[in-house]
Amino acid sequence: QVQVVESGGGLVQAGGSLSLSCSASGSIFSIYTMAWYRQAPGKQRELVAAKTTGGSTNYADSVKGRFTISRDNAKNTVYLQMNSLKPEDTAVYYCNADLQPTHYSAYANYWGQGTQVTVSS
What we know:
The protein is 0% helix and 60% strand. The protein is mostly beta strands.
């Protein structure tokens, strides 16, 4: 059994900052990529930022220079520091972990339950 749990989020004024964290726990043999996605009302879920175990990162153009993703591989935890927040960053933010539950399992995606981020103008 694998669990992915986010924390953080909340309400902040435009220009402010928020930090999200996400931990994967349970039966985990290996994690490759941990990522943050978001989904605003009426829109498709989109990638915000991703980081591999080796340290490669990928950001959506809309957040480059404002958001920073980091990982603690020993703790199976990923963080998202969000600065200079804008109203258009308002969304439910989801954590995703691409992992192997056991050494003989294929990699699969596991999702957290999501956490609301609201940026007021």
